[in-house]
Amino acid sequence: MAGRQLADKWLKTEALLKDAEVAVHVPQTRKYSAEALQGVLHQFGMAVIKPVRGGGGYGVIKVTYAGGSYGFTYMSRSWSFKSFDAMFRALNKAKVGRKYIIQQGIHLARIGGRPIDYRVKVAKQNGKWVYRSMLGRLARPGLFVTNLAKGGTQLSAREGLRRSLGKVPIRKKREEMRALTNKCISIMESAFPGVGELGFDYGIDTSGKIWIFEVNTRPQ
Asked: Strand, coil or helix: what is 190?
């Protein structure tokens, strides 16, 4: 039994941000607007915009600001602009016709120059939450999205951590991911009674910090 499904990324992010321990692992997130995007870009140099509803990497765009110029990447194509206004106009034409959120861009650990993130799936069985899988997703060469639907490669979490982080203790990092998952399960179950399946999308940056990118209530 799948249980309750909730598609709205903004509502799920809001729930996580109410817990101080978890909030430090959530990238800064804003509702989509020119002012919000410019603020995130000027603070972090990179933002990812994604539809409030949807998955599989569909409609996800990376936006950058460096050296006074702006740009964005959608799938394998990139565009560059001399002003924010010009970039924002082009961005609005490129993005799909849905509501969007803006998320602080994270510089992910990589394997052979390709970013990797992780999907942890859990499900409720006989009243208890059990782990179904912990997998790494390595982006297809030339892409920044890691989704398997977009040509990403699946690895075990252990292999992904070992190959991308090198000297970081792998067991300790897996335990940290599980502890964060357990905390988030409690938050999601409290905020959205009836959920029966959860899929957590995690990124690990170049310093080894775990970030929560998204929580799915109907993980593929």
From this structure: helix
C-alpha pair distances (Å), 42 with each of 46, 70, 100, 167:
8, 10, 19, 32
pLDDT in tens, 50-85: 988 776 667 889 999 999 999 999 988 899 999 999
Adjacent-strand bridge partners of 51: 100
- 58 CB-contact burial (10 Å; exposed 0-12 / middle 13-18 / buried 19+): middle
212 within 8 A of 22, measured Cβ to Cβ: yes
pTM for the model stands at 0.89
d(CA 174, CA 197): 20
Q: How far is CA 167 from the centre of its chain?
A: 24
Sign of CA dihedral 194, 137, 149, 145: positive
Pair of tokens at residue 216: 């799915």
Does residue 47 surpass a pLDDT of 90? yes
CA distance linking residue 182 with residue 132, whole number of Å: 13
3-state DSSP assignment of residue 176 = helix
pLDDT digits (tens, 9 = 90+) for 164-177: 998 778 899 999 99
